[in-house]
Amino acid sequence: MKTIYYTDELNDDFAATNGIKTQALPPDYKWIHTGFLWNFFADILYYLIVFPLVKIFNTIVVGLHVKNRGVIRRLKSGCFLYSNHTMHIDPLLSADVSGWGHRTYFMAGNDAFSIKGLYHLVAMLGAMPLGYDMASMKEMLNTVSKRYHQDSCVTIYPEAHIWPYYVGIRPFKSASFAYPVLLSAPVVAMVVTYRKRNFPFGLIFKKPAITIYCSDPMYANPTLSRKAAKEDLRNRVYLWMKETAEKYSTYEFIHYEKENEE
Predict the structure, then answer these.
(1) CA angle 186, 189, 192 (to 5 degrees)
(2) I want to staple 65 with a disulfide (CB 3.0 to 4.6 A). Which of 34, 204, 211, 239 is the partner?
(3) Contact status, residue 129 vs residue 21, Cβ threshold 8 Å
């Protein structure tokens, strides 16, 4: 078993993207495309090419099982999906969970928009860059609000950094819960767990299979202030994710150990 040593649960990142030179978004970056051709090809790419391939990939290669899969479909509206962050393919997993009827968008660091030749492709697939100043934060909020009101599923990874195959839930802040509080939107928590593959699939695929558990919808408490509502919603989501991971994520493919600070 491989062991990874960490020092900071909030800030350590093991995504192995050091080869990507992160660049700032151009000042004329278009957060929402309204042109017919751009959206036409984006829908063709997502619904007719990528989504079917994602379903096949997740079924055969990932061995994906989803518990409470229908929770998002039953909402009949947009929602915010909060997930632990343990793989580069996490957006493919959330797209599978949200299903055909809910276009999936996801928060992504600027490194995702710094890959030469893939700038527009990443955006067409649903990636939304993080705001880094007052102007871009306002644009990000407007974009998230528009996508939610289009009955889309907005996926957020509150842990922020990728820890491959980590079986626990790392502490995260309440900042990302401002969106569902402001929009009075439903929140679904999602936990990616790992299981050992059974024979004969274990002979073909060496990496563990995935089971995803989805919570029932949670809502911000309207009687609290916005700040208190964010904290309250964060705490409920974190507790559910932590308890679910402890109960079901039982196969440790990579061991994480905190370095001795001494």
Answers:
(1) 155
(2) 211
(3) no
Residue 183 three-state SS = helix
CB environment 166-189: b (16+ within 10 A), e (fewer): bbebbebebebbbbbbbbebbbbb
pTM score, whole prediction: 0.91
10-residue block means of pLDDT along the chain (262 residues)?
90 74 72 90 92 93 94 91 94 90 83 68 86 82 93 94 94 94 96 87 81 97 96 98 94 90 52
Alpha-carbon distance values, 231 to 4, 148, 220 (Å): 31, 21, 10
Token pair, residue 148, equals 């939610």
Strand order in the sheet with 187-195: 65-67, 209-214, 187-195, 79-83, 153-156, 104-108, 127-129
**Chain centroid to CA 76:** 20
User: Please, are residues 191 and 177 in contact by the beta-carbon 8 Å criterion?
Assistant: no
Cα–Cα distance measured from residue 12 to residue 3, given in angstroms and rounded to the nearest whole number: 15
Among 149, 128, 152, residue whose Cα is nearest residue 140: 128
Helix (H) or strand (E) holding 232: helix 226-248
Q: H or E stretch including 201?
A: helix 201-204
